[in-house]
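In response to a reviewer's request, we include the raw inputs and outputs for one of the modeled complexes. The two entities were modeled together in a single run.
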Amino acid sequence: MIRSVARPLSRTWQSAHLLRHRRMWIIMSGIVGATLLVWFLNDFQNVPLITLGDAVFWTTYRLIVAYSIALVLGVTIALLVGWSPFADFFFPFFDILQNLPSFALIPIFIYVFGYTNQMIILFAVTSIIWPILFAVLTAIKSAHRDLSDAATIFGARGIERVFYYLAPLSFPAILTGSIVGIAIGWESVIGAEIIAHIAGFGSFISEASTSGVTEASVAGTIAILVIVFVINRLIWAPLLADSAKRYAE
Amino acid sequence: MPNNMPHSEPMALVLSRVTAHFDDESAHEAPAIKEVSFSVPAGGFVSIIGPSGAGKSTLMRVILGLMPHASGTVVRNFSRPAMVFQNYALFPWLSALDNVAFGLRMAGMPKKERERIAREKLREVGLLHVERHYPAALSGGQRQRVGLARALAVSPDILIMDEPFSNLDTITAEALKADLLRIWRSYGMTILMVNHLIPDAIELSDQIIVMGAHPGRVEKIFAVDLVRPRNTRGTPFFKEVDELTEAIRKIS
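The model returned the following structure tokens for the whole complex.
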């Protein structure tokens, strides 16, 4: 007895189905966005938007600079250590360093650099660098031996091994290390701004809280969430999708 | 010499009492391979068969200089080795074309020239239509063919193959074997292949080295005297298979 007959779905139906979902997402986002906007305009009239914009700009700027430095340093150190025969020697050394609580180091940074932009950026570098460095080192150490042998047999030796084998091999690790690093970086930059009381989102919410302007803190948090969302959608999501496509087994 | 090949032939590779340990093994433990001696004639097709733990892959790595050996001598009369891996070992970040061109790129060949050669090699293994595909988008058989094309692209004088058919289905493996024999004849290179299938070894090889395990050692060396192209359905072929199977049974 035939209980059911499965028929292939037509391409038109499939694309219409997807489109319907896409339209639904756009409509839903529009409704939520419009509600938030009305609420935002009514409840956040007292929030100094220029000051908030300025604070968010400085925090984001510091994070981007700190991330760029950490990325270059972390990847370079990891590739050079992974390339050398001393990787096993350096691993525990890095492990101890990354376990130091970064906020315990902030007095040293203030002592050396004062209450400056450089202090916050370099302090953030010390916390962003570790996830990147460890992700890359682990990727190199755990790579399949055949892949390493293939690179050697086909001539990837010396510095060419770094550029044509180790660096591309580490790309997914750089990506995941960066995502974790940036997340830690937000905390470090904002935390350092609160402690050092230097213009930025950290000091903005700190001042808003102490002066009882809760809307300002909430508005700032929304602004940061929007930036995080945009960075994720525009940078990390496409890179992760590309990485998953290329590096899949 | 334990080899029963005529010594007047030029040798591509000679191993004399080679002992090697695994990378993570101390010198006091049993070696991965012990006192291994054999030679591979230039232009010959030699297979190595043996059980798991016979140190076949370790032996390949020692031959290619990828790991040190503890004692003995390895004489390498080749300058351009290439290898085909059991697990393909294609670079996942490179397209099929760029994987094939990898060795040429490392040799400093200009892009246009290396891509021309890579396309030629892909055509030779019947995969020109997938030149822009990444390894993840290729089937096991296609990946192994790209691996073979990558090896051929560097014009090797010795091709080392580590169980190249073990991850492939029967139909794909048969097609690849036919291609391999055609390529071997046209290139005239030396092939040293690790294998664990006796019929495959007899079909392809001039000489078969049988290894024992724990520690890996050469138990016996057989010369295969069947005329080429070999009829794998004829009585002489099955006789050779039976003889080798019986010999291996006695050894194990």
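As requested, we also summarize the result in words. Chain A has a mean pLDDT of 85. DSSP finds ten helices and no strands in chain A.
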